[in-house]
Amino acid sequence: MSTIQLLPDLLINQIAAGEVIERPASALKELMENSLDADATEIDVQLEGGGIQLLRVRDNGRGIAPNELALALQRHATSKISSLDDLQRVASMGFRGEALASMAAVAQITLISRHVSATHAWKIETSDGVQSTAAPATHPQGTSVEMRELYFNTPARRKFLKTENTEFAYCEETFKRIALSRPDVAFSLQHRGKQVWKLPAIHGEDALQKRITAILGTEFSQGAVTIESNVAGTHPTARLSLSGMATLPAYSRASRDSQYLFLNGRFIRDKVIAHAIRQSYQDILHHQRHPAFVLFLEMPPEQVDVNVHPAKSEVRFRESQAVHQFIFHTLQQALAAPTAGGGDLKTAPAASAFSSPKLAQPSPFMQQPMRLYNAAQPVAFYIAPSWGDVMFGNSKNNSSSTQQQNAALTDPVFANFTDAAPQGDNETGVPPLGLALAQLGGIYILAQNQHGLVVVDIHAAHERIVYEKLKLALDEHHIPSQPLLIPVTFHADTLDIASAEEEHATLTTLGFDIAPLSPTTLAVRAMPAMLKQSQAEAAARDVLHELREFGATRALTERRNEMLSTLACHAAVRANQSLSITEMNHILREMERTERSGQCNHGRPTWFQVTITELDTMFMRGK
Ligand code: ADP
Ligand code: MG
Question: What is this structure's pTM?
Answer without folding.
Answer: 0.62
